[in-house]
Amino acid sequence: MKSLAFLLLLGAAFAAAEDKIVGGYECPSHSVPYQVSLNAGYHFCGGSLISSQWVVSAAHCYKSRIQVRLGEHNIAENEGTEQWIDSAKLIKHPQYNSYNLDNDIMLIKLSRPASLSSSVQTVALPSRCPVADENCLVSGWGNIDFPALSSSADSFPNRLQCLRQPIIDDRICRNAYPHIFTENMVCSGFMHGGASSCQGDSGGPLVCNGQLQGVVSWGYDCAMKGHPSVYARVCRYNSWISDVMRNN
What we know:
By secondary structure, the protein is mostly beta strands. The protein is built from three helices and 16 strands. A six-stranded antiparallel beta barrel has the order 10-11-12-16-15-14. Strands 4-5-6-9-8-7 form a six-stranded antiparallel barrel. A hairpin with a 2-residue loop joins β14 (205-208) and β15 (211-219). It is globular. The two termini are 28 Å apart. Residues 4-20 and 148-152 have low confidence and may be disordered.
């Protein structure tokens, strides 16, 4: 997740630095089988497997070469469930805005299909848009320290972290982020702060009732009171996703 404080200062020059789960818990091993790690010699973003050959992530996670790691729980150990597959195509949304992170969504085509198993599964795209107070799950290997600005290498866990959190009403989110929040975004988390996605969670899944409703995108620092995490609203992109998958 990108930090808006830095984002407003550095704009598109800022890389995906702020993406973690603060205030969460270690996920039961392989309980989030659609979660993937994007790797460039190190974990830098998350993603969600939506078919055997396609992953959804955030556009701000784009790199020219990415290895997608599936079936992971502890990214520092070989657990025997992993599948490491190179990307064949990376397709950012054509209206992605790198300054305000509008349309912050990207599709990754794998160089070969993943083998589905108990540790590697797809997640459903949304059949509707999320509603306020709907209970959701966000997950990732991102920073777990609060405040985020004090984080160090020890702040990034090897084991996948989870957090249950609600969808926040759009009006509340618009008030928290005036002139920045768009119809392509959705907020989820806690207005009182203390728990949220953060550095290293970018591109990862926000799943509500079994459907991928959000892609970790940005926030004002992490877990800050009055500033919930913001996600790309996946229901806005069903047609684009279908078109890209069909044409590629």
